[in-house]
Amino acid sequence: xxxxxxxxxxxxxxxxxxxxxxxxxxxxxxxxxxxxxxxxxxxxxxxxxxxxxxxxxxxxxxxxxxxxxxxxxxxxxxxxxxxxxxxxxxxxxxxxxxxxxxxxxxxxxxxxxxxxxxxxxxxxxxxxxxxxxxxxxxxxxxxxxxxxxxxxxxxxxxxxxxxxxxxxxxxxxxxxxxxxxxxxxxxxxxxxxxxxxxxxxxxxx
Length: 205
Known about the structure:
This protein is an alpha/beta fold. It has two domains: 26-62 and 103-202, 3-Layer(aba) Sandwich (Rossmann fold); 67-96, no CATH class. Helix content is 46%, strand content 15%. A hairpin with a 2-residue loop joins strand 1 and strand 2. Its cofactor is pyridoxal 5'-phosphate.
């Protein structure tokens, strides 16, 4: 009998989610990926890691995010539905998290993993800037230098988030190659990571 299809059970050692998935990365990145995977698996079963992560989510991020019952929207949907039918709508208020989005959850976990691995420099890519802001925020919290790669086109469109990242101490590197958007920022971040893997952790958004 197959195990339940749960992220707690997967991916397996080949990077597969049941019949699907796998690893599709350049060979030069495989040693980095395998090292990261080993440390992640160890951290996942470490009670001290889990306790620190949970504490930061509660006291730094502000989780659990509150749920809000959208009474008027629910009423409107039920008025237009068959009797006894219609959705009951609840909002999960992730915008009340620190930095104003869900992105901070991922960044907190990843920077804890980075420090566990002994990394002393953080890089990330960002498009609209929210992931960049969250990454810069956790770097400021833990005192690690942070470089954010952002397409020059995106940086011009998202000046408030560029300002926030710089305010938090991050270096924002505009990427002018290609379409100067997220794809190109990610390519530059990957190039940096491969060249500086000895001390650098890539917080992928």
